[in-house]
What we know:
The chain is an alpha+beta fold and 359 residues long. It has two domains: 4-128, Creatinase/prolidase N-terminal domain (Creatine Amidinohydrolase, Chain A, domain 1), CATH 3.40.350; 133-357, Creatine Amidinohydrolase, CATH 3.90.230.10. 35% of the residues lie in helices and 21% in strands. Strands 4-3-2-1-5-6 form a six-stranded mixed beta sheet, sandwiched between helices.
Amino acid sequence: MNNIRRIQEALIQQGLDAILITDEKNQRYATGFPFTDGYVLVAREKAWLITDSRYIEAAEKIAGGCCTVQMFDRGHSAVSLLKAALAEAGVEKLAAEEEKLSYASFAALSRNLEKQFYASKGLLMGLRASKNQEEIDSMIQAQRISEKALEKTLTLIKPGMTEREVMAELSYYMLKFGSEGNSFDPIVVTGKNTSMPHGVPGDTVIQAGDFITMDFGSLKNGYCSDMTRTVAVGYATEEMRNVYNIVLQAQLAGIAAARSGIPGKLIDKAARDVIEAAGYGAYFGHGFGHSLGLDIHEPPLAGPRGEALMAENDLCSAEPGIYIPGKFGVRIEDVMIIRKDGAEVITKAPKMELIVLNN
């Protein structure tokens, strides 16, 4: 899968001659090659992938149909190959990834290529927001792997295990069931630690009556999944069940409000209103959700300051939470596909009732 043609059409629309792509995820989006070193240059009529001897054979096999693949070495520097490509394409207005390129790299490339860079105005991230069916299928495959790993891990959790041990089981089974790796470092927290939305798994021991929050994701064809489930061990108090149900109703309200063409903050508001009405507004500090794809966090966002409009076929998380310091926290997270008339949830793991484990 490559998106060279889409990028070329966007260049023409923005009045740009070419874009130099340095970010690994953007390079993969453009060429289909899981790139690790080098450059991709996309001009209006032609594209180049420039890499070194470690990757040249694989690059030619995967991206040779959409790009001119060239190798830099001691006799032919990457800069010299780029300058030749720019001259061949007659590039005057060369864009850079302003969201990804460091100032030091920007300055060095501009000086070495003897070109002024123009802002791409979010060209690549804008294209990446709306997923095609192949991308969606990869993310669904990743989600199914995560759900299978969760199902297995839930049979293993019992008092006396540590957070780190549960994280290790999740990571192992995601790999065993086909993941290319973790889409981010898994979050597994228990007891009072569940009040920390991004707590780091440690040696805290699971006890009966604890919540466990597990936030994790798989990778398939480079695309991410993301999910969170909060479960109880042994038993749950009435307060725990009440907070869980408030979070669930907030999530369902946000999902019901989601559709393309509206700012993300309206989706967030629908969920936040439920939590605030229940008296827990002070304990929901983060946004309702974020888009994802090749990166685990992509724009647009469904948060309180989410002004950008949600794109059709954007995949966005739905993850409200309530976090009571020193006590416990609850988060439930699914991923949804934004459609014209609503949202389609691709996450299938159970959530409608609090799961209480009795292993």
